[in-house]
Amino acid sequence: MSSTLRERALRLLARREYARAGLARKLSSYAESAEELGALLDGLSARGVLSDERYVEMRINARGARFGNARLAYELRTQGVSEELVAAALATNVDELTRARQVWQRKFGDKSGAVDAAGRARQTRFLMSRGFSGETIRRVLRGDFEDD
Questions:
Q1: CB 74 within 8 A of CB 106
Q2: pLDDT tens digits, 8-53
């Protein structure tokens, strides 16, 4: 295994967390073979330097306060994180209704809902673009903040 490949991987990981697939994409052009890259990634994972669980936790902590479950799940899947890990992380995260209400209040203030249909549509589009579910958006706009 090339020491320069290992050094490059450690430099990248020193800056921020990466999912295994994301780091593999970054390093693939520098590796001499796929086997060399796989061995390096296996070694980093075995030593605890590379961890998909830690990456998921970091991403959810960094972006969870601003985005809904659908957007978070999409971003994690595009980085090659397994479906089981995504589902487990979102299940332990703060509930989506609470996050949606906080995002809505930061953007639109403590209004008791949109005054007209155009304002309500604008608020709906904003929350949808953040990845919140339709039911969550309806509950936020109705002012129904109690959990069922």
A1: no
A2: 999 999 999 999 999 999 999 999 999 999 999 999 999 999 999 9
The one-letter amino acid code at 52 reads D
Q: DSSP strand E in 86-135: where?
A: none
Intrachain domains 1-50 and 96-142 with the same fold:
yes
* Helix, strand, coil in percent for the chain, rounding step 5: 70, 0, 30
- The pLDDT score that the predictor gives to residue 146 is 64
- CATH code, residues 1-50: 1.10.10
Alpha-carbon distance of 115 to 21, in angstroms, equals 47
Check: CB of residue 86 under 8 Å from CB of residue 53.
no
Q: So what CATH class is 96-142? A: mainly alpha
**What amino acid occupies position 101?**
R
pTM: 0.83
Q: Where are the domains of the chain?
A: 1-50, 52-93, 96-142
Structure tokens, 4:
């320069």
Angstrom distances, CA of residue 8 to CA of 13, 19, 30, 118: 9, 15, 9, 51
Closest C-alpha among 77, 86, 89, 23 to residue 50: 23
